[in-house]
C-alpha cells in the first residue's frame, strides 16, 4: 500500500486501505476514524498483515475499554511506536487480539521503552507469586518459597506470561506497520528463552510451596533447559525440554519435578522431560552420579547430540553447572563412536520420514530444506571439530555457524547463506505460530492464497517490481529451501572427508572401517574402492602425496556434489597417475581453485569426459580463467580448423596424418564437452563447435588421402573432389553421438577421362571412410554416405554432371528433402559451391513442391514413426524419434521450406533453428508456434547430448527416474537436484511441440 505524501491528504476509501469486510466503513465510523485527522491512522492500519482482522479487534477493544478508549485513541494518533506495535500485533495475531479484549488495560504495556532483561523477567514473575528466597540447609540453591499456590496463582502466572509474550510480539511485528527497526532473530529467541527461564522459576517456586508447605525444601534440584530453550533460540509457541538433576533423587524430588512440570504446562507451555536418560521410561529425576553412569555406558549418539544445547535454567544453578562440567566432555568425544555417522544419518532420515509426503514441501521444521537440515549439519560439524576446538562449544545454531566460519570449517559465504536461510525459515515459523498462538511449523497450502498473503505481509515481504508480496514469499521459500538442502548436503559430510585424507600423525584419524562408512555417507556406492583410491593418491612420503592430502578434502567435497562421485574419483586417480611426471598438474589444482573445482565437476558428471581427459589431460590447463574469461571458450573455430589441417599436413602417411588430426579432435572434444558440462556454452554453440571439428577432420583425412594418392601414382589428382555435409553436419548442428552424413562429388579435370576420374574419386572416398572409421578408443568417426542418390545401392561418388542428371530426372521426395541441409564442408570449395548452386533448383523448386510430394513426405514420416522407433522405447522420451523430438521438429521445418522456400529466400538455410527464425519472420507460423518448436528442438538436443556425456555412448532414450536420470539432468544444465522436475519439463515442452507438429505437418 502506498503511503500518502502528507497527513493532510484525502481520506482514503476502504478499498485503498485493503479492507474487504462489508462492515468496514461502519466500523471506521464507530471508531471515529473517518475525518482528515485520521489519515495517518488509516494508512498505518492498511499496512497491518490483515487490516480487516486489526479493524475488528479495534472495535472489540473500544467496547471493552468504554470511556478508556479516548486515551488510547489519542495516543495512537500521537505515538507512532504504539501505533506500529498495536496494529502490527492485532493484524497478525487473533490470539493476542483476544488477549487484549480480555485484559483491555494491557495495551498500556505496549508503551514500554525497552524489553525487560532476564533478571527483570524473573523478578517480575516471582513478585507475582510473592516468592522469597528459601532458607535453611538449601540456602545456596536458587529455590524460592511462594506465598501463593493453587489454581488462582496458576491463572495469574498465565496472564503475566501472556503479557510479556504480547509485548515481545508487538515489538517484533511493529516493523510491518511503521518504519520501526526489525527485531533481530537472535534477540527474539533470547528474549523468549529468558521469559521461559523466568516462567519456570516461578513455577518451581510454587511447586516448592505446594510439595513442602510447612518445611524447608529438603532436595537440591537443578533444571536444565535442552533443545531450543537450552540454545536460547526458543519459538513463540514451543514445548520446553528439560532435564532434572536432584540430590537426593528420591520420591520427594520426583514430586517436586512433576509439580513444576504440571504448573508450567498449565500456565505457559508444554514442559517435556523426554530427553532424560531412557526417555519417558526413565526416572524423572536422577542424581548427578546416575546421569554420569548412564552417559558413560548406555547413551546413544543422538543423546550426546542433544546435550550440545544443555543449559542450567533455574533451580540449583550450581548443581546444574556441575552436571554440565561432568557431561560435556563426553559430548566432544562422541564422534569417535563406531556408529556416529550412521546414527546421525538414520536419525535425520527418521525425522524426515515422519512428515507425510504431501507436507514435506510445506514443513518448515522437519521437511526437505528445513530447519532440521541446518541444525543437523551444524551440530555434526560441532561434534566432529569441537573436540579439538573449544570455540565451537556454543549452544545456538547461529552462534555455532559463526564460530565454524571463523575457524575455517565452513566457508564464510556458506555460513552467511545458511544463517540467512535459517533466520528466514524461523521468521516464517514465528509468524505462523503468532496467528493463533498454536504450535505449528506447516505452511498453508498453495491453494490458500489468502493465508499465504497474510503470511507474506506479516513476514515483511514487499512487492519487488515483478511480484506482489505473495509472489515474493513463494520465490523466497523455494530459494531458501533449495539453498538449505544444498548446503546441508555439503556441510553434513565435509569433516568426514578431511579425516579420510589426512595422514599427519598429530591429526585426528579414523579407522579404515569408519572411513568406509563415512565415504558411504558421502554418496560413494563403493566406499572400499574409494578408500583404495585415496590411499593410492596420498600414500608414501613424497611431496606429491602430501599435496594430494592437502587437496583431497576439498576435491572430494566437490566430487560429492556430482552425480557419480565413484566414477569421478576413479577418473581423478587415472588422470593424476597419467600426469605423475607433470609438475604443473598439482600446482594448477593447488593454486587455481577454479581449475580444481571445474575438474571435479566434469569427472563426476561425465563418463565421456573422464575417458577423454585421461587421454588429453593438457585440456585441464584450459579450465583456468584467462584475461577475457574461461580459456575453455576462448578458442576460435576457424583457428581450430586450421590447426587440425596444418597438423595433419606434416605427415605424408595418411594413417599418421589422421592420427594427428584425431589427437587434436580429442583435445577439442574434451574442451567443448568440458565447457558444455560447466555451462559455459549453450547448446547451439556446442553443436556448431562439434560440426566445425568434424568438418576439419574430414578435410584433413581428405587432403592426406589425395596427397598419398598423388605420391603413389606420381601424377596430380585427375579430378577435383568435394565433401558435402548432409543432415546435422550440413546444418552445423551435430551432437556428440552423431555420424557424419555426406555426399562425395568429383569433377574431372580438363582432358581427363570421366571413368578414370570417378574410379580415382571412389578410391579417395573409400580411403577417407576407412581411415576415419578405423577402430579407436576415441569417440567414433563414422562417415555415412547413405543419403546419396539411390541410397546405399547407388555409386559412392558421382560427378557434378551425374548429380545434375539424376536429380533432374529421378529425384525422390525424400532425396529432395535431404538436400535442404546440404552444405560444403570439405575438399574443393569451388566445386562444393557449384554443387550447391546446382541443387538449389531441386530443393527450392519454382512454385514449391507438388501436393503429391507432400503426401509422400507425410507417408514416409508416418512409417518412420511406426517402424523406426526401437523395440521397447518410450515414444514420450525418445529424443530423436519420440513425440516432439528432433525428427518431429526437423521434418516440420523442412516441409515448410519445401512449400515456401521458392518465394521466401530467407528459408534457404541448412540450420533448423535459423530456418525457424526465418519462418517466424516471414509469418509462416505464429511466434508462439515457432517458440514451441524451438524449445522442443533445444530440449531434445540438450538431452541427447547429455545422454552421450553421461553414458559415453550414442543413445537417444532418456532413462526412467533414478541416478542415471539425475546425471542426465545435471549434464543437460538442469539447475536443481530434482531430476523428476527435469523429466516433467522435458515432457511438457515436447508435448507442446508435438501439438504444433501434428497441426502443421499433418495439415
* End-to-end separation: 52 Å
Work out the number of β strands.
Answer: 14
Q: How many DSSP helices?
A: 41
Overall shape: elongated
Helix fraction bin:
55-70%
Determine Rg (CA atoms, Å).
38 Å
Return residue spans where pLDDT drops below 50 for at least 5 consecutive residues: 1-8, 135-142, 493-510
Briefly note the structural class of the backbone: mainly alpha
Please indicate the percent range of residues in DSSP E strands (runs of 2 or more): 5-15%
Mean pLDDT, all residues: 88
CATH superfamily of the domain at 636-843: Beta Polymerase, domain 2
CATH topology of the domain at 636-843: Beta Polymerase, domain 2
Proper CATH architecture of the domain at 636-843: 2-Layer Sandwich
> Class of the domain at 636-843 in CATH?
Alpha Beta
Largest sheet: 5 strands, mixed
What does this protein structure show overall?
The protein is mainly alpha-helical and 1003 residues long. Among the domains are: 104 residues, no CATH class; 208 residues, 2-Layer Sandwich (Beta Polymerase, domain 2); 150 residues, Four Helix Bundle (Hemerythrin (Met), subunit A). The protein is built from 41 helices and 14 strands. The strands form 4 sheets. Strands 3, 4, 5, 6 and 7 form a 5-stranded mixed beta sheet that branches. Strands 10, 11, 12, 13 and 14 form a 5-stranded mixed beta sheet that branches. It has a two-stranded antiparallel sheet with strand order 1-2. α11 links the parallel β4 and β5. α16 packs across α17, α20 runs antiparallel to α23 and α27 crosses α29. The two termini are 52 Å apart. The N terminus is likely disordered.
Amino acid at each position: 500500500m502506498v503511503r500518502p505524501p502528507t497527513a493532510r491528504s484525502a481520506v482514503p476509501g476502504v478499498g485503498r486501505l485493503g479492507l474487504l469486510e462489508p462492515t468496514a466503513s461502519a466500523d471506521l465510523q464507530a471508531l471515529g476514524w473517518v475525518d482528515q485527522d485520521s489519515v495517518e491512522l488509516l494508512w498505518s492500519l492498511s499496512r497491518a498483515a490483515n487490516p480487516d482482522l486489526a479493524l475488528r479487534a479495534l472495535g472489540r477493544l473500544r467496547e471493552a475499554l468504554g470511556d478508556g478508549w479516548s486515551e488510547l485513541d489519542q495516543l495512537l494518533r500521537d505515538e507512532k511506536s504504539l501505533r506500529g506495535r498495536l496494529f502490527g500485533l492485532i493484524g497478525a495475531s487473533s490470539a493476542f487480539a483476544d488477549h487484549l479484549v480480555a485484559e483491555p488495560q494491557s495495551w498500556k504495556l505496549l508503551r514500554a521503552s525497552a524489553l525487560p532483561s532476564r533478571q527483570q523477567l524473573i523478578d517480575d514473575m516471582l513478585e507475582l507469586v510473592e516468592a522469597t528466597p528459601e532458607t535453611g540447609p538449601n540456602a545456596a540453591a536458587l529455590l524460592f518459597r511462594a506465598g501463593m499456590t493453587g489454581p488462582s496463582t496458576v491463572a495469574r502466572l498465565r496472564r503475566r506470561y501472556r503479557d510479556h509474550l504480547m509485548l515481545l510480539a508487538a515489538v517484533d511485528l511493529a516493523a510491518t506497520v511503521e518504519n520501526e527497526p526489525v527485531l533481530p532473530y537472535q534477540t527474539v529467541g533470547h528474549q523468549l528463552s529468558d521469559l521461559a527461564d523466568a516462567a519456570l522459576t516461578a513455577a518451581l517456586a510454587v511447586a516448592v510451596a505446594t510439595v513442602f508447605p510447612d518445611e524447608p525444601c529438603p532436595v537440591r534440584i537443578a533444571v536444565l533447559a535442552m533443545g531450543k530453550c537450552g540454545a536460547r533460540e526458543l519459538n513463540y509457541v514451543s514445548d520446553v525440554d528439560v532435564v532434572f538433576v536432584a540430590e537426593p533423587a528420591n520420591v520427594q524430588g520426583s514430586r517436586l519435578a512433576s509439580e513444576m512440570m504440571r504448573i508450567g504446562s498449565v500456565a505457559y507451555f508444554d514442559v517435556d522431560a523426554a530427553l532424560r536418560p531412557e526417555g519417558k521410561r526413565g526416572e524423572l529425576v536422577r542424581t548427578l552420579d546416575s546421569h554420569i553412569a548412564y552417559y558413560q555406558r548406555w547413551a546413544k549418539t543422538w543423546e550426546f547430540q542433544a546435550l550440545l544445547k544443555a543449559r542450567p535454567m533455574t533451580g540449583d544453578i550450581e548443581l546444574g553447572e556441575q552436571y554440565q562440567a561432568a557431561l560435556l566432555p563426553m559430548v566432544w568425544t562422541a564422534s569417535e563412536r563406531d556408529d556416529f555417522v550412521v546414527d546421525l544419518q538414520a536419525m535425520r532420515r527418521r525425522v524426515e520420514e515422519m512428515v507425510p509426503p504431501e507436507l514435506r514441501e510445506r514443513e518448515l521444521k522437519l521437511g526437505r530444506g528445513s530447519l532440521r537440515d541446518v541444525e543437523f549439519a551444524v551440530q555434526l560439524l560441532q561434534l566432529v571439530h569441537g573436540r579439538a576446538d573449544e570455540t565451537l562449544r556454543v549452544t545456538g545454531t547461529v552462534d555455532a555457524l559463526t564460530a565454524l566460519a571463523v575457524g575455517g570449517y565452513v566457508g564464510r559465504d556458506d555460513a552467511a547463506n545458511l544463517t540467512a536461510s535459517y533466520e528466514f525459515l524461523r521468521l516464517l515459523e514465528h509468524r505462523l505460530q503468532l496467528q493463533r498462538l498454536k504450535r505449528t511449523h506447516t505452511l498453508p497450502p498453495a491453494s490458500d492464497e489468502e493465508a499465504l498473503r497474510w503470511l507474506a505481509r506479516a513476514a515483511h515481504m514487499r512487492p519487488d517490481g515483478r511480484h506482489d508480496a505473495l509472489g515474493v514469499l513463494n520465490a523466497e521459500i523455494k530459494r531458501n529451501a533449495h539453498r538449505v538442502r544444498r548446503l546441508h548436503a555439503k556441510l553434513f559430510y565435509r569433516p568426514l572427508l578431511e579425516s579420510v585424507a589426512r595422514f599427519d600423525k598429530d591429526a585426528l584419524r579414523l579407522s579404515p572401517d569408519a572411513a568406509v562408512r563415512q565415504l558411504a555417507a558421502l554418496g560413494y556406492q563403493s566406499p572400499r574402492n574409494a578408500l583404495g583410491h585415496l590411499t593410492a593418491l596420498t600414500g608414501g612420503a613424497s611431496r606429491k602425496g602430501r599435496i594430494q592430502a592437502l587437496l583431497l578434502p576439498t576435491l572430494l567435497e566437490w566430487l560429492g556434489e556430482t552425480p557419480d562421485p565413484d566414477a569421478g574419483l576413479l577418473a581423478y586417480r587415472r588422470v593424476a597417475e597419467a600426469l605423475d611426471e607433470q609438475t604443473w598438474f598439482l600446482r594448477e589444482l593447488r593454486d587455481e581453485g577454479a581449475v580444481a573445482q571445474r575438474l571435479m565437476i566434469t569427472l563426476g558428471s561425465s563418463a565421456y569426459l573422464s575417458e577423454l581427459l585421461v587421454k588429453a589431460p593438457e585440456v585441464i590447463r584450459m579450465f583456468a580463467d584467462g584475461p577475457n574469461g574461461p580459456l575453455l571458450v576462448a578458442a576460435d573455430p576457424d583457428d581450430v580448423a586450421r590447426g587440425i589441417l596444418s597438423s595433419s599436413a606434416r605427415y605424408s602417411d595418411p594413417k599418421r596424418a589422421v592420427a594427428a588430426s584425431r589427437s587434436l579432435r580429442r583435445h577439442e572434444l574434451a574442451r567443448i564437452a568440458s565447457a558444455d558440462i560447466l555451462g559455459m556454452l549453450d547448446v547451439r554453440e556446442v553443436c556448431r563447435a562439434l560440426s566445425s571439428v568434424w568438418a576439419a577432420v574430414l578435410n584433413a583425412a581428405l587432403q592426406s588421402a589425395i596427397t598419398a594418392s598423388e605420391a603413389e601414382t606420381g601424377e596430380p589428382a585427375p579430378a577435383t573432389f568435394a565433401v558435402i555435409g548432409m543432415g546435422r553436419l550440413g546444418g552445423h548442428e551435430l551432437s556428440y553421438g552423431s555420424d557424419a552424413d555426406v555426399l562425395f562429388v568429383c569433377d574431372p579435370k580438363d582432358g581427363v577421362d570421366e571413368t578414370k576420374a570417378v574410379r580415382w574419386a571412389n578410391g579417395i572416398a573409400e580411403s577417407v571412410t576407412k581411415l576415419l572409421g578405423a577402430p579407436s578408443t576415441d569417440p567414433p568417426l563414422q562417415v555415412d554416405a547413405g543419403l546419396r542418390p539411390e541410397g546405399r545401392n547407388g555409386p559412392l561418388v558421382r560427378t557434378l554432371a551425374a548429380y545434375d542428371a539424376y536429380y533432374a530426372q529421378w529425384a525422390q521426395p525424400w532425396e529432395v528433402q535431404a538436400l535442404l541441409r546440404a552444405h560444403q564442408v570439405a575438399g574443393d570449395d569451388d566445386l562444393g559451391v557449384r554443387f550447391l548452386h546446382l541443387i538449389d533448383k531441386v530443393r527450392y523448386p519454382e512454385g514449391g513442391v507438388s501436393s503429391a510430394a507432400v503426401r509422400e513426405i507425410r507417408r514416409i514420416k508416418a512409417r518412420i514413426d511406426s517402424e523406426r522407433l526401437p523395440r521397447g522405447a518410450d515414444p514420450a522420451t525418445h529424443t530423436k524419434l519420440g513425440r516432439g523430438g528432433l525428427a518431429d521438429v526437423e521434418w516440420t521445418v523442412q516441409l515448410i521450406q519445401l512449400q515456401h522456400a521458392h518465394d521466401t529466400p530467407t528459408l534457404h538455410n541448412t540450420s533448423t533453428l535459423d530456418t525457424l527464425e526465418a519462418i517466424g519472420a516471414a509469418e509462416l507460423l505464429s511466434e508462439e508456434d515457432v517458440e514451441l518448436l524451438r524449445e522442443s528442438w533445444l530440449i531434445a538436443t540438450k538431452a541427447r547430448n547429455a545422454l552421450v556425456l553421461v553414458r559415453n555412448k550414442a543413445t537417444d532414450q532418456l532413462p526412467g527416474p533414478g541416478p542415471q536420470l539425475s546425471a542426465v539432468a545435471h549434464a543437460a544444465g538442469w539447475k536443481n537436484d530434482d531430476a523428476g522436475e527435469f523429466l516433467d519439463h522435458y515432457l511438457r515442452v515436447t508435448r507442446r511441440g508435438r501439438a504444433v507438429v501434428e497441426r502443421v505437418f499433418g495439415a
